[in-house]
C-alpha cells in the first residue's frame, strides 16, 4: 500500500489562509449585512430577505443591470474578433515578435485609475486631443459630458484600447503552439486561408479563447474604476453601470443592507453567467 505524504498540505496551508482572510471572511461580513439593518453604533436589526426582495423588484437595479449587460456584450463582440484578427496578423518568427508582444502588453501595464484619467483628458471636447479633433477637424458634434451616445462610445473605446491586448496575447499563444505539420498538410491539400483558420487555427485556439472570453466577461462585468473616473456614471445615469450604482448605494447613501444584498446578487449573476459560458464552450470536450 502506497503511503501518502500529508506534509504537502503545509505548503498549501498559507495560501488557504490567505484566501480565507481575503475572500471568505469579507464575504461572511457582506452576508451578515445583507440580512440586517444598521444605524451605526454597532446596532443591528434583523431584516431577513427584505433587502433581496427590494433589490430584485427595483427598477433602478434592473436599469443598471441592463446597462452592465449591454456594456459587457459590446466588449465581447468587439474585443474577441479584434484580438483574434490582430494575433493572426502578428509575425511568428524574427525580430518583430518580441517588439509586437511588448507593444501589445503595454496598455495592460497602466493602472486602471490612470487609464480613466488619461482618457478623460484625452476625450474632453475643449482641451482633449480626441475631442478637439472630432469637433474641429472632422466636424462631428462630440461631447461625452453631455451626450450619452458619445459617453458610451468613449468608455467602449477606452476598454477596447486597454484590454484587447489580453485577447491578442492569449490568441497568439494558441497560434504559435500549432505544429507546422498542420499547415504543411493544408498547403498540400490546397486549403484556402479561410479553411486553414476555420478547421485548424480556430479549433486549436478553442481552449485559450475560452479563457479569454471568461476573463473578459468577468472583468468587464465587474468593471468600476475606468468608467467611473472617465464619466462618473454620467451624463445623468446613462453610463451608471451596476458596479458604479452599487458603490453609490454603499458609500454615497450609506445603505449597507441593500448594498450588501445587491453585491451578493451581483456575485451570483457573475458566477452563473461564467458557468454558462464555460459549459457551452466546453460542451464538445465534455461529451
TrEMBL record:
UniProt keyword annotation of DNA damage present: no
GO BP terms: transmembrane transport
Keyword Transmembrane helix: yes
Entry keyword set: Membrane, Transmembrane, Transmembrane helix, Transport
Superkingdom, taxonomy of origin: Bacteria
Membrane-spanning segments: 9-35, 69-88, 95-112, 118-138, 150-173, 260-281
Annotated ranges, domain ABC transmembrane type-1: 65-277
UniProt similarity note: Belongs to the binding-protein-dependent transport system permease family.
GO cellular component annotations of the record: plasma membrane
InterPro entries listed in its UniProt record: MetI-like, MetI-like_sf, Sugar_ABC_transporter
Name this protein carries in UniProt: Carbohydrate ABC transporter membrane protein 1, CUT1 family
CDD domains: TM_PBP2 (cd06261)
Compartments (UniProt record): Cell membrane
Topology term for the membrane: Multi-pass membrane protein
